[in-house]
Amino acid sequence: QAHDGVNKASNPNARTVEVLEEMGKYYDQTAHTWRSVAYRKAIASLRKQPHKITTQEEAARLPFVGKRLAAKIEEIVWTNSLRRLDNARLEPSDYALQTFLNIYGVGFSQASRWVSQGHKTLTDLSANAHLTDNQKIGIAHYADFLARIPRAEVEQLSAIVQAALRNIDPSFRAIIMGSYRRGAADSGDIDLIITAPAAPTQRIRATVCEVLVPALFALGFLKATLATTSKDTGSKWHGACALPNSSIWRRIDLLLVPDTELGAALIYFTGNDIFNRSIRLLASRKGMRLNQRGLYADVVRGKGREKIAQGRLVEGSSERAIFEALGVPWREPEMRVC
Ligand code: DCP
Ligand code: MG
Ligand code: MN
């Protein structure tokens, strides 16, 4: 920015340029790339003007200066600053909200409650807010849980679960799902379906919750339990794990699936979430209903399309057969990115 010093005294629009540059820097930092580019072009254009630009109309005639930027230029000239810039400086609450939303298990209502209570940083929260055990874990492993997991590490972590499962009952399988199955180079967490031929959900749950999970804790692989669905109806186990000798905790999600539901669960847990929404919408347009357990027909819906009766199971066990029953051409997991 050497040109600043050179131009400052002589350029009639120096002060305006200076304020706009600060604004552009703010957009740079907040990753509003498109806006920061627009600012840079407008600044270059303004810098070339031999006279001081003082009104919105004059500014709007310059190349690369749109209506809104023109209004800002006029405001800077008359007030020597920009309200939006002061707002930008005053917006740490946005950063706080963003920070809090990135804590595992924290949703919008909790995050905004903390912001309105005046909390600004994670350190703040740890010291002054009343936190649940999960929130404490989420904060302690904030960076860990935000980091992407390389594909090779997803495989290493899954292999540990698969080996433990083989020891317990060789008929059990752990299938790597989520973004990994879609072919992603890295993943946000490890998603595994745990299934076994001809085993009812109850038996799979008993094996996972009473044998596999304790064994993996004993091994030091599992680090924390974060969420499980209620004892008898549940089919999910969420927690954290780590490679031996690694201090980085990774999020791991287990979905317990009887083979009668495996096809529907494969579709659900492969995603992505947008793909799931669109294929479910398509099912409902055809008078059917797709969820993580199966594809159902003769679903009775009320006026608001709300479901009144569950309907008859069309297909649950085969992923391909569900596509066929829906009349949708087969899509490889890698292509299920919307
Ligand atoms: N899923 C869904 N709707 C949600 C959450 C999840 O349909 N609200 C399904 C689709 C996801 C799959 O479960 O692909 C796994 O969920 P994840 O949150 O683990 O997402 P991904 O594995 O797709 O991505 P990431 O790499 O971020 O974990
Ligand atoms: Mg995932
Ligand atoms: Mn997941």
Automatic annotation (TrEMBL):
Keywords of this entry: DNA damage, DNA repair, DNA replication, DNA synthesis, DNA-binding, DNA-directed DNA polymerase, Lyase, Metal-binding, Nucleotidyltransferase, Nucleus, Transferase
Give the main localization category.
nucleus
Per the Swiss-Prot or TrEMBL record, the active site comprises 72 (nucleophile)
The Gene Ontology CC terms held by the record are:
nucleus
For this chain, one GO molecular function annotation is: DNA-directed DNA polymerase activity
Is RNA-binding found in the keyword set? no
**Has the keyword Nucleotide-binding been applied to this entry?**
no
Q: Which residues form the signal peptide?
A: none
| GO biological process annotation, one example | double-strand break repair via nonhomologous end joining
What is its subcellular localisation?
Nucleus
**Source species, domain of life:** Eukaryota
What family, per the record?
Answer: Belongs to the DNA polymerase type-X family.
The name this protein goes by in its record = DNA polymerase lambda
Native organism is: Cryomyces minteri
What does the organism's lineage look like at the top? Eukaryota, Fungi, Dikarya, Ascomycota, Pezizomycotina
